[in-house]
């Protein structure tokens, strides 16, 4: 053994080939963190000092090669000033170079995932052989950073700038076969034979049958593109990628700029450019926030795993109501492998529900994502019915009938009487208190909420609502079912609106107060879209449905009259009276007509001004900054209340709920992370500034004491 580290081991084999094995002894997977980094230098020294070596093979003893960086550890490093980040990253680059500069051939055997720094490690060698099933990629830009260990230097030199740009800016994981097509790997082989073939490949190199020396030079030289080709490649891709990513996500465009700037440089010069850009991105708020979102996602997975411990797979489900939501739930369940009964009270509704599923499947068929056979199988596993008799054997039943408390309270006990104890009944209500609905039932322990978002197939979040009497088993089965449906569940305690709608309506109320003050709805939309929301509040109301919104707002106002009851009739209520329901009937704040693809296209509609004027109470001048404050503060304060009242367990769950359920801008990482970035003391001042507009601007007691103690929701730079 030439070196026996905690994460890396080095030995010389009988053919005088050095074998470097990545294997964190006390861990289940290889990740790049302090352990690995500490061993790396010693590994390089051991390899360099071995005079007998004829070649070096890098491999892994774990199921995967190297997953990438231990992002929690990295987040700590990124909290330092930029120069310090550079000092941390650059020495690692030098180590990778020392391997690349060896005067013997080098090969990496990629047996599983090799992502981020893991894949950059593979790129230091002359060749890469990948096992079938392995996946590689550079996902850094998704976290607001970019490759920092030579990925943006070596990949374009190996595979061409076009491919490197696509790989780095998309952050996708690629199959070994895709990597082979662009020369990012040199062969794809049977996983069981990877080591054997690695040895054979190395022998060919040693025997001079492979030109490994020119491979090394190629990676160290400037790109082989002419000036014109460079201009075409980088200009076009920058325009395209900037359009896709938007101004709030600078990492993908920065990565292209780095490749462009360093195109005519040698490897070492190019690495310095990469390092500078990496450190700038890594110390930015955007990176900190996107990394937080990634960690939030991991956290939710852990919480769900705990919640479902011991719970069995759901083999059969049912949905009551074949409307917009019922149809969507049936499709999602069937297409992710859980057969589902869909019950309605009339045949026409069932046909509509089924047709909705067919439409979605047809789109997938057209895009060649599924075969006709698979489509048939999915449709066959949606079983439409008008009778409860068919419900035998279902483990979870989602109730998705009309949003009317009295009707639900009549239908739920009827359903309960037809199924045995232990069958979970989960209501998809958007606003009605679960414990209240449970009073109509004999077995409230089997009842909870399962709140999907519209459109079901696209929206990732499901709120699982624990009523006062809901059992842990019922929660576990519902979370299990949500996971099977490939959704992200968040378990919340019961209250009107639960988490997501409870914090959305104060935001809408902030909007309503701005309209009262005569602020143009189009300007508010623009300002909030610039803030990062996928759509402004007027457009969002149109998409949700003005009728649905007004109805839900009433429920929320009844539940929290002190801060959610509006003093005057709102513009939305005037629109509702005029039957302007939004996108669903073509007129709301805006008007809608199908575009060439049949999608509703929004346009400004002068006839809405009549209703805007009706709602206007006065004329107040507000700045764009004030618009953001007046919209966001009620949402932030309501999020804090949800946390303080234990509706949600942690700031991460609040923030992930908003990102996944409402499209809260991920680069801001959620309302509470955003609150941290403003600062709680400043929020207290802003609360005082706006409190005359209503109690929705009242800061919570919890926030006040946090401000007094200089606390934050998250540990971070702020
Ligand atoms: P919808 O009006 O489109 O569909 C309701 C369906 O329920 C209709 O097909 C109706 O025939 C059927 N129905 C009525 N009584 C029934 C009974 N006794 N048994 C079986 N079926 C019955 O409504 P929707 O938009 O799908 O909403 C359903 C539920 O989902 C509501 O509670 C709503 O608040 C909630 N929800 C809706 C949305 C949304 O954006 N539409 C989002 C989240 C949650």
Characterise this structure.
This protein is α/β, with parallel strands linked by helices. Helix 3 (82-100) packs antiparallel against helix 12 (267-282) and helix 20 (500-516) packs antiparallel against helix 27 (624-644). The strands form four sheets. Strands 13-12-11-14-15-16-17-18 form an eight-stranded mixed beta sheet. It contains 31 helices and 20 strands. The two termini are 47 Å apart. The chain has three domains: 3-283, 2-enoyl-CoA Hydratase, Chain A, domain 1; 307-494, 3-Layer(aba) Sandwich (Rossmann fold); 501-708, N-(1-d-carboxylethyl)-l-norvaline Dehydrogenase, domain 2 (Orthogonal Bundle). It is globular and about 85 Å long. Bound molecules: nicotinamide-adenine-dinucleotide. Residues 320-326, 343-346, 349, 400-403, 411, 428-430, 452-454 line the site of nicotinamide-adenine-dinucleotide.
Short précis:
The protein is an alpha/beta fold. 51% of the residues lie in helices and 12% in strands. The structure holds nicotinamide-adenine-dinucleotide.
CATH superfamily of the largest domain: 2-enoyl-CoA Hydratase, Chain A, domain 1
What's the structural domain tally?
3
| Rg, Å, rounded | 29 Å
Ligand kinds: nicotinamide-adenine-dinucleotide
Report the major sheet.
Answer: 8 strands, mixed
Shape: globular
CATH topology of the largest domain: 2-enoyl-CoA Hydratase, Chain A, domain 1
Could you name the ranges where pLDDT drops below 50 across 5 or more consecutive residues?
Answer: none
Structural class: alpha/beta
The end-to-end distance, rounded to whole angstroms, is 47 Å
Measured as a percent range, the helix fraction is 40-55%
Content of β-strand:
5-15%
């Amino acid at each position: 053994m030439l070196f026996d580290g905690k994460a890396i081991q080095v030995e010389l084999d009988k053919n005088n080939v050095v074998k470097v094995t990545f294997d964190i002894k006390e861990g289940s997977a290889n990740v790049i963190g302090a352990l690995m980094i500490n061993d790396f230098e010693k590994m390089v020294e051991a390899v360099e000092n071995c005079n007998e070596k004829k070649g070096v093979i890098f491999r892994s003893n774990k199921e995967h090669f190297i997953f990438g960086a231990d992002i929690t550890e990295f987040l700590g490093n990124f909290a330092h000033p930029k120069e310090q980040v550079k000092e941390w990253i650059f020495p690692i680059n030098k180590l990778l170079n020392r391997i690349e500069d060896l005067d013997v051939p080098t090969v990496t055997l990629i047996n599983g995932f090799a992502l981020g720094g893991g894949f950059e490690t593979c790129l230091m060698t002359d060749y890469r052989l990948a096992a079938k099933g392995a996946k590689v990629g550079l996902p850094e830009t998704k976290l607001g950073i970019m490759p920092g260990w030579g990925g943006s230097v070596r990949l374009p030199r190996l595979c061409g700038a076009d491919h490197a740009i696509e790989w780095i800016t998309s952050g996708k994981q690629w199959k070994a076969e895709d990597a082979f097509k662009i020369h990012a790997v040199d062969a794809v082989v049977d996983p069981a034979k990877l080591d054997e073939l690695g040895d054979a490949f190395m022998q060919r190199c040693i025997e001079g049958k492979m030109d490994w020396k020119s491979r090394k030079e190629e990676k160290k030289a400037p790109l082989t593109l002419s000036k014109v080709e460079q201009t075409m490649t980088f200009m076009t891709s920058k325009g395209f990628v900037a359009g896709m990513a938007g101004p709030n996500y600078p990492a993908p465009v920065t990565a292209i700029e780095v490749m462009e700037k360093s195109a005519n440089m040698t490897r070492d010069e190019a690495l310095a450019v990469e390092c500078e850009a990496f450190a700038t991105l890594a110390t930015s708020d955007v990176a900190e926030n996107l990394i937080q979102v990634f960690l939030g996602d991991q956290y939710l997975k852990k919480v769900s795993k705990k919640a479902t411990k011991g719970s069995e797979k759901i083999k059969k489900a049912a949905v009551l109501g074949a409307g917009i939501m019922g149809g969507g739930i049936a499709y999602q369940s069937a297409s992710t492998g859980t057969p589902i009964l869909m019950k309605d009270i009339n045949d026409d509704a069932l046909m509509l529900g089924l047709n909705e599923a067919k439409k979605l499947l047809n789109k997938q068929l057209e895009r060649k994502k599924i075969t006709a056979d698979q489509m048939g199988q999915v449709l066959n596993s949606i079983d439409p019915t008008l009778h409860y008799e068919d419900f035998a054997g279902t483990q979870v039943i989602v109730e998705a009938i009309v949003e009317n408390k009295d009707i639900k309270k009549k239908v739920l006990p009827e359903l309960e009487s037809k199924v045995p104890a232990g069958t979970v009944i989960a209501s998809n209500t958007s606003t009605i208190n679960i414990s209240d609905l449970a009073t109509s039932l004999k077995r409230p322990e089997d009842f909870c909420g399962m709140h999907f978002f519209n459109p079901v197939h696209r929206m990732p979040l499901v709120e699982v609502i624990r009523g006062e009497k809901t059992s842990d088993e019922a929660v576990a089965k519902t979370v299990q079912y949500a996971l099977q449906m490939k959704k992200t569940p968040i378990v919340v305690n019961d209250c009107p609106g639960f988490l997501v709608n409870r914090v959305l309506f104060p935001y809408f109320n902030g909007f309503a107060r701005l309209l009262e003050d005569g602020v143009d709805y189009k300007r508010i939309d623009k300002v909030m879209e610039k803030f990062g929301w996928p759509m402004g509040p007027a457009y969002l109301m149109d998409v949700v449905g003005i009728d649905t919104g007004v109805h839900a707002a009433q429920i929320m106002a009844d539940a929290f009259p002190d801060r959610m009851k509006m003093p005057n009739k709102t513009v939305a209520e005037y629109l509702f009276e005029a039957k302007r329901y939004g996108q669903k009937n073509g007129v709301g704040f805006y008007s809608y007509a199908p575009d060439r693809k049949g999608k509703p296209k929004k346009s400004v509609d002068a006839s809405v001004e009549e209703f805007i004027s009706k709602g206007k109470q006065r004329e107040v001048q507000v700045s764009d900054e004030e618009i953001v404050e007046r919209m966001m503060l009620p949402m932030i304060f309501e999020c804090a209340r949800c946390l303080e009242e234990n509706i949600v367990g942690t700031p991460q769950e609040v923030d992930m709920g908003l990102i996944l359920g409402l499209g809260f801008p991920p680069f801001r990482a959620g309302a509470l992370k955003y609150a941290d970035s403003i600062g709680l003391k400043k929020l207290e001042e802003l609360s005082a500034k706006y409190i005359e507009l209503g109690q929705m601007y009242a800061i919570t007691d919890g926030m006040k004491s946090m401000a007094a103690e200089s606390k934050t929701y998250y540990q971070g730079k702020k």
